[in-house]
């Protein structure tokens, strides 16, 4: 899944998440302040 960061504030951020992403992932149970694993997106030149 990809998230779009809409606001950066130090070590915190706000992201837009589509309804379909929320419904099909564990984000449905997440609350503000929860710790989540983040990884950079793959690109065509990653491998």
TrEMBL record:
This is Lumazine-binding domain-containing protein. Residues 1-47 form the Lumazine-binding domain. Pfam families: Lum_binding. The lineage of its organism: Bacteria, Fusobacteriati, Fusobacteriota, Fusobacteriia, Fusobacteriales. InterPro entries: ATP_synth_asu-like_sf (IPR023366), Lumazine-bd_dom (IPR026017), Riboflavin_synthase-like_b-brl (IPR017938). Lumazine-binding repeats lie at residues 1-47.
């Amino acid at each position: 899944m990809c998230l779009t960061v809409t606001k950066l504030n130090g070590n915190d951020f706000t992201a837009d998440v589509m309804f379909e992403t929320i419904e099909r992932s564990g984000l449905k149970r997440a609350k503000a302040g929860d710790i989540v694993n983040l990884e950079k997106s793959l690109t065509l030149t990653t491998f």
